[in-house]
Amino acid sequence: MTNLEILIAGVQVGPYESENMFWKNFEESISMLVKEKNPYLIALSELMHIPYLAVVKNDEEFNFAQTINGEVVTKTVELSRKYNVHIIGTLFEKEETKQGGFNYYNSSFVCSPSRGLLGTYRKVHLPTIDHPSLITNEKYYFEQFGGGGTEFPIFTLDNGVKIGCLICFDRSFPEAWKCLSVQGAQIVVVPTATFGFRYDLYVKELQIRAMENNVFVLAVNKAGNEVYPENTPKRANFGCSNIINPKGEILELAGDVPWSSIAQAISISTVEESKNLIDWKLERKPEVYKKYLYQ
User: Fold this and answer.
1) Alpha helix ranges (H) inside the chain
2) What is the separation, in whole angstroms, between the first and last Cα of the chain?
């Protein structure tokens, strides 16, 4: 499998218009990519089916949430089968508790054209930021009722390739990447919906994470100007979706056009080649780190 070559792709979701427009743009993007590039894997941006709502605290926004058996996942699985391609979608997820309430999550999910839903990843790191260029409080939506992710799972695609997912703010925590790489991840998919000052180091940060974990990175950001709710400041999602190899080299880099895509053929053997240069996992000293961390 180390000589395996696959084509991976990402779709930069545009500003939220309506549910109907989302599904129209979503399927058109998938259809066009399959027709023109025939990718093995397609990933989309964070919270793909809704506006980025964490700029306000409004209980009505919880109406966007769906269960893992809801329309977003069901339709995405159907598209995966229809176009014979793995799809990584994203979701404002809700899960009923034993007490009859709900926990809420910022989630990604992996669909196989032959096996359906492979599983979900729930965002672990939930930002609270108050900056002139970036205001967000994701804890209000995804943590206050006991939600928030607690695991870093690995998913195996139909061809045996192992992938992991991180979501947006997760990318800035080296420990999260290491949790995936020590489990054998070969590709890390990073859906984002980021804007403001986070533009400055967006690509550079991902290059370093790819190199220090010997993994490919497929990062897919939202793109375009979004105003939601009405009368809130415009958010300029800067796009810059990218594909980076395990040596930290940029293979593909998008601009800021909504509903545009990136695609690149990759060789899984590059993972082993990068490890032959430096296998960072073998050089770690966890017995030293634990004296200072996690206390």
Assistant:
1) 19-36, 71-83, 138-142, 174-181, 202-213, 269-277, 286-289
2) 40
Q: Tell how strand 102-112 and strand 86-96 pair up.
A: antiparallel
Q: Are 105 and 149 in contact (CB under 8 A)?
A: yes
Query: Do β-strands 235-238 and 223-226 pair in parallel, antiparallel, or remain unpaired?
Result: antiparallel
Q: Where are the alpha helices (DSSP H) in 110-162?
A: 138-142
Cis, bond preceding 229 (omega within 30 deg of 0)? yes
State the Cα–Cα distance between residues 21 and 65, nearest whole angstrom. Answer: 18
Angle at which helix 19-36 crosses helix 71-83, to 10 degrees, equals: 20
Residues 6+ apart with CB under 8 A from 93: 65, 66, 67, 68, 104, 105, 106, 107, 120, 122
The segments of the chain whose pLDDT lies below 70 read: 1-2, 295
Helix (H, G, I), strand (E, B), or coil: what is residue 197? helix
**In what helix (H) or strand (E) does residue 98 lie, and over which residues does it extend?**
none
The predicted pLDDT at position 2 comes to 61
CA distances from 260 to 66, 122, 203 (A): 26, 26, 18
**pLDDT at residue 231, rounded to an integer:** 83
Cβ atoms of 159 and 8 within 8 Å: the answer is no
The pLDDT tens digits of the residues spanning 255-285 come to 999 999 999 999 999 999 999 999 999 999 9
Q: How many other C-beta atoms lie within 10 A of the C-beta of residue 196? A: 18
**199 CA to centre of own chain:** 17
Cα angle 160-166-172, degrees, rounded to a multiple of 5: 135
**217 touches 270 (CB < 8 A):** no
The pTM of the full predicted model, rounded to 2 decimals, is 0.96
